[in-house]
Amino acid sequence: MRFLVLGLLLLSFGCTRDPSAPSIAPAERLAGTWRWVSSLDVKTQQLHTPMTEGFDAELHFTAESRRSGTFTYTRAGMKAVHGQFEISFEDAPGNDFIVLEPAIDFLKRNAWVAAGRDSLHLGGVMELGYNSRYARVAQ
Fold this sequence. Notes:
- The chain has 139 residues and is of the alpha+beta class.
- It has a single domain (23-136), classed as Lipocalin (Beta Barrel), CATH 2.40.128.
- It is 16% helix and 43% strand.
- It has three helices and nine strands; from the N terminus they run H-H-E-E-H-E-E-E-E-E-E-E.
- An eight-stranded antiparallel beta barrel has the order 1-3-4-5-6-7-8-9.
- The longest helix has 13 residues, at 2-14.
- It is globular, with a radius of gyration of 20 Å.
């Protein structure tokens, strides 16, 4: 009886979620509007910014599930681009990879994605693309 109670007690502690562990819902972390800050050409090391390119841009994500949703890319003076995105992870949660369809400025299709509370990094190193930074727009 003692072993049964001890076993049930250990099982109940083993099944509880660690409150300090992050909730893995990358599409929900992306949800919201992001203002383009810069894009670094990985091959040439040329830095592109709103000032050097002559336009501002924003990327708005809407999560439809934990790993996918829709996006709208708006660039001053151009028609908005609407599309779908999907996030997968390469080898561990937090090492996320995003696919956007269709492409947007400085992102052909694929990128490593890291979203913080106020900053978003889209890294296109694999395809010798651009490492782009965005800042969250306050709601």
